Amino acid sequence: MRDGFQAKKMVYDVIIIGAGAIGCALARQLSQTVNRVLVLEAGEDVSIGATRANSGIVHGGFASKNGSNKARFCLAGNRMFSSLSKELDFPYRQTGSVVLAFRDEDWEVLENLRQNGLANGVEGLSLLKEDALRSRVPRLAPEGILGALYCPESGIVSPYEYAIALMENAVSNGVELKLFHPVQSLQPYQDQILVQTPQQEFAAHFVVNAAGCGAAEVAAMAGPSPFSITPRKGQYILFRRGSGDGLNTVVFQPPGPMGKGVLVTPTTWSNLMIGPDAQEIEDANDVSTDPQSLASVVQRAKRSVCDFQLHDAIRLFSGVRPASNRGDFILEWSEHLPGLLHLAGIESPGLTASPALAQEAFRMLVQSGLSENANPDFTRHRRAPVHYQALAPAKEAAAAARLPEGNPERIVCRCEQVEEQAIKEALHHGIPLSSTDAVKRRTRAGMGICQGNFCLPRVKDLLVQETQCPESDILLPSRDKGEMKAQLDALRRLLHED
Ligand SMILES: Cc1cc2nc3c(=O)[nH]c(=O)nc-3n(C[C@H](O)[C@H](O)[C@H](O)COP(=O)(O)OP(=O)(O)OC[C@H]3O[C@@H](n4cnc5c(N)ncnc54)[C@H](O)[C@@H]3O)c2cc1C
Fold it and tell me: What is the band of 301 on the pLDDT scale with cuts at 50, 70, 90?
């Protein structure tokens, strides 16, 4: 089989392992060049690791320690989001952010953050006294807030829509993507690297390890891993669409010995979101939630904003940070396997930093011999299948939901008012889809109050029709709704809101 590599065209210039924000950003960066690029992703879709479940903040860059990779790439990445969102049509908004002061001692913490931010190159940072803060952010809790550090450069993004947009654009510009392809081994092969998955072997001149929580395992395929990754889980509560209205900025709490504190933020789709906490865990795939941890998240969030109601909560979820023993982003060549580049330990603010990290990785690859010749056919733009718009009255949506299949005005998801046409479009955007969750991340069908109760069978039918994927192969949501409802009930009891 190996001798047939060239003939079978399984030799690439670059193979990227992992299709999270980092892998997708690098794939898009490389698609601007003539290089042959393959992305191998273990999961059923892009953006299924840390990139799917996080706070979605485009950080301003004041919190990361001056001189660190985090500080450097966070600021550079932050400044790329506005133009990227226009090119790739994903939801992003520069909302600014505030870090609150609850006690007199917090002013010193905020001033240190301000100084650190200035040293990092962040512009517009200012300390606001209570009156100025409240006129800027009216939804804050009425008691116990003294003021804040304001950063105008922070923003919010839909993280999975961002990663999907990057990869769709990369694929349309010639990058190959293979889902369900977990990399199992790496070996030197002539002057290349042999990459093995259960289905197939591939070879490449360069391999980039962007495997998130799996990065140490991938590194260890080449020799003893030079770093370790400890998965650190953070839990969140998401509230119904509209609950984020009137909150016009991201609200952080002062960092303390127990970590960053929980944040309260609007999402790009006008939900309110609170979280995360931080728990070190053994299994990076453990995305469970529990009512006790979430009760603590609610109590802490209410110090910042207290006008939300638990009966508006529609989803409990958690994300897992790939925290490394280095405490900083790792961008380095393997000492054991020439051509293997690690982009590892990319915890927060990794989403923000991702486009800048991709540029840096490209620079490192070019310095080691990768061609930087431009792809003459590169297309910079990509369109999303859905866009934000106010919801129509429920009666109208219910009528549109009763229209027959194939009617261009038929609505599939009543809660988020997603049209059949948008789902069909999403299914033909270059990434093969095989799960109702993948459709949800692209179109919001199933993202609303009923969490897919109504639309799940309809989405499944469309998946079967449009992709010719056998019905038995369609993956249904991994999270059990009954269990989530039970947790929400337990949470309400714990907080005496039942
Ligand atoms: C709770 C939480 C909150 C956060 N908040 C923010 C924030 O507000 N702003 C911000 O900037 N950053 C934030 N982050 C950080 C950000 O989410 C991450 O830095 C970013 O998503 C990392 O992307 P990644 O591509 O490195 O990893 P991932 O998204 O985890 O992607 C890695 C991919 O590699 C795949 N993979 C693993 N092993 C293999 C293998 N052997 N073969 C093939 N594929 C493999 C996985 O399936 C996965 O899809 C947060 C993270 C968490 C968890």
Answer: very high
